[in-house]
Specification:
This protein is of the alpha+beta class. The chain has helices at residues 55-59, 80-94, 126-132, 140-158, 219-222, 229-245, 255-261, 273-282, 294-314; strands at 30-31, 35-43, 47-54, 66-72, 104-110, 113-119, 123-125, 172-175, 180-182, 195-199, 202-207, 210-212. The protein has 9 helices and 12 strands. Residues 1-27 are annotated as: Disordered.
Length: 319
């Protein structure tokens, strides 16, 4: 290719295409000059959770300087006053110190990224435990531990005026030593527009009073009533039913659909009638008829199971 003067033309300069901007949330990023993001360990509709290295803790010589950072995608969907509410609620959770509740250390913000600093746990969620277990059924001893630990956490939080409001397998964490911890207490906040995300093969609805996962929620929560203790008791009963049967109590129906269609949960085969009665009372669709507290639910459910195990241990040897 030549010009009119006979001088060869230079080939046209190739312009670099504008690359996709790097995400501000990725491994290697350091927030507030302190928390180095290492790897993504969880993701939801409005947030992502990273394992992070706390540089201050590392410099202080702590054996385990790792924390979990829950980074919330506020964006345009959340009003500024709602962001303030999120920070205020996080401060309430910071004071919720219990062996069966994940620690919340702080909530901070950098460049519109609002993040919660939490205890980093080693183990797996109950939803993963279900997937790894044949027929998704847990041993009754593990279910007893699950019910006792979750009920202890709920009783503690309820006593301080805090309702979990979105109890489900993904929000129950089983540590390597078998201890159970509740994670992801629902910070109730409205959103500027309706949003839906899929999670655990269910739909998580973000409504006027925060997130709710219909497969585990009471009919009152699905009617957008303000969360209360009875809703957590219902969700605990759903988890207990699932852990023992591998099924949801109303099949593919939500509790609200079950209420409208007058569907009762199918009794769990092989379960002692008193243990079943405890679960049935926890699953009462009418909250006035439901077991009044998580502690009462745990007592009624585990009492028969512990009694049965003790009887077997104390029975005379057959010769």
């Amino acid at each position: 290719m030549t010009s009119d003067t006979g001088v060869p033309k230079a080939p046209p300069r190739k312009t670099k295409k504008a690359g996709k901007p790097k995400s501000p949330v990725r491994p290697g990023v350091v927030l507030r000059g302190r928390f180095e993001l290492l790897e993504e360990i969880g993701r939801g509709g409005l947030s992502v959770v990273f394992k992070a290295r706390d540089k201050v803790a590392a410099d202080a010589g702590l054996a385990d300087p790792h924390v979990a950072l829950k980074i919330i995608f506020a964006g345009d969907a959340v009003e500024p006053d709602i962001v303030s509410l999120m920070h205020r609620e996080a401060r309430r959770l910071r004071d919720l110190v219990h062996p069966n509740i994940v620690r919340v250390y702080d909530m901070d913000v950098e460049d519109q990224l609002h993040f919660m600093v939490m205890e980093h746990l080693n183990g797996k969620t109950l939803s993963k435990a279900f997937r790894e277990t044949p027929e998704h059924i847990l041993d009754v001893r593990k279910v007893n531990r699950l019910v006792q630990d979750v009920a202890a956490a709920l009783s503690f939080s309820h006593g301080r005026g805090i309702v979990h409001a979105d109890l489900k397998p993904g929000n129950v964490f089983i540590e390597r030593n078998g201890a159970v911890k509740l994670i992801d207490f629902n910070i109730a906040f409205p959103v500027a527009r309706p949003m839906k995300v899929t999670e655990e093969d269910t739909i998580q609805i973000l409504g006027r009073l925060g997130a709710v996962t219909p497969a585990y929620a009471s009919p009152q929560r699905l009617n957008d009533a303000e969360p209360c203790e009875a809703d957590d008791v219902f969700s605990l009963a759903v988890l207990t039913y699932m852990a023992l049967s591998g099924q949801r109590p109303f099949g593919g129906k939500t509790s609200l659909e079950a209420l409208k269609e007058e569907i009762a949960p199918e009794p769990i085969r092989g379960l002692h009638r008193r243990s079943w009665k405890a679960i049935e009372n926890g699953l009462a669709l009418d909250d006035a008829s439901r077991t009044p507290s998580a502690a009462q639910f745990a007592l009624e459910f585990t009492r028969q199971n512990v009694f049965s195990v003790a009887n077997r241990l104390m029975a005379p040897l057959q010769r």
